[in-house]
Amino acid sequence: MESWLSMSQIYMSHSALRNHCCHHLKGSTLNDTTAPSQLAIGIIFFLQTVLGIWGNFSLLYHYLFLYHTQCRLRVTDLIGKHLIIANILLILSKGVPQTITTLRLKHFASDFACKLILYVERVGRSMSIGTTCLLSVFQTIMISPMNSCWKNLKVKAPKYIAFSISFCWIQCMFVNLIFPLYALYVSEKWHSTNMTNTRDSGYCVATDLENISGSIYTALIVFPEVSFSVLIFWASGSMILTLYRHSRRQVQYIHKASVSPRPSAESRATQSILLLASTFMCFHTLSCIFNITLALFHNPSWWLVDTAALISMCFPFISPFLLMSRDSIVSSLCFLT
After folding, report:
1. Taking every annotated instance into account, which residue ranges of this chain make up the domain G-protein coupled receptors family 1 profile (predicted)?
2. Which of 32, 40, 154, 233 shows the smallest number of beta carbons within 10 Å?
3. Is the confidence at residue 322, as pLDDT, over 60?
């Protein structure tokens, strides 16, 4: 009798364990299924990534073709080429991993790959705002009147563009390398005490750098971005004011000379750069708002993370088409040497 009871208990325990395992396996299978909303987000990420890569590589090929055929690029095209490279870095480091993650392949990146992806993304983001600021300020100087305070810089500015771009690359790569190295040092030093702040990026789990050292993050990342944003805003306002004054003088000349209005190449180039800078400021402001919102939550919802990623990808996706929309920017004056 006791033997029969013990065998019954073993059978019941085995049945309960089997039912629990089957229920757990069923729940895992249901959780792994892609929801229609996430599938739609994944398709948007995929289209944004593919079209963004195609647009940026097409424009980069255009610039490289002109360079290898012994053509001399305009200064604005030279800056635009580096903006395109920054866009490609952003799309490859942000768009591709987010597309894979949204299609339900999570945490596919190793620890080293995770740090490398985040580093490339930060360098691309820093170069994007740096080159946009440089392009806006340069065009503001070049279209300023001869009696303005910028008249002495109009001749000198083109000579310093190559140095400014190189300095921007070195600064972005150096600053964004120091910050994760410092975070790695602090995380290993305090590993046994208070290093529990991590953030799930979807494709990997990374240390929440903003929570490790807010002052260093502000000094190295936030302050330069705010400074560049203020310069872009000032340059955009200056370009609008200059274009307004130029259009008024042009209207007065048309009334006197009775000729048809025809915008100059300089005006078309300025309008294109102004559109590019305004688009950047809109998406950059939205991206900052969403990033601040994400920083307030330790485990934010998936739609908030995906929306923030989509917005951060908008400018790298749109900017090459904005540059190609104006012949004054894409086409270059070629001088055979």
Report:
1. 55-323
2. 32
3. yes
